[in-house]
Amino acid sequence: MKNNAVVALLLGRAGSIGFPGKNTFPLMGRPLMRYPMLAAENSKYVTHRFFSTDSEEYKAIGRANGWDIIDRPDYLATKTALGEDAIVHAMGEIKKR
Predict the structure, then answer these.
(1) CB atoms within 10 A of CB 24
(2) Do 10 and 40 form a contact (C-beta atoms < 8 A)?
(3) Residue 63: inside a domain
(4) How far apart are CA 91 and CA 84, in angstroms?
(5) How many domains does the chain divide into?
(6) pTM, rounded to two decimals
(7) From the centroid of its chain, how far is CA 60?
(8) Domain residues for 20?
(9) How far apart are CA 97 and CA 81, in angstroms?
């Protein structure tokens, strides 16, 4: 990846407690998670798109829309896991690629 790359990184955990199924909740004909994806896809600045998740359903949606998938480990997909830790993990995976 070039030094001037602009990376979009989205995080999506399957086990939402406050609003179960929120990421796939239909809104105006699309799963809710598609809206931030579309923002990145339509940006003239974003050069690479990555989606970190533990959900097979979310992975399928990401892949179907051309996103590179990062398999989030179980310990980063709990209700107490910090988003910051998931970001650090994802950035390490992105650097490897």
Answers:
(1) 16
(2) yes
(3) yes
(4) 11
(5) 1
(6) 0.91
(7) 11
(8) 7-96
(9) 24
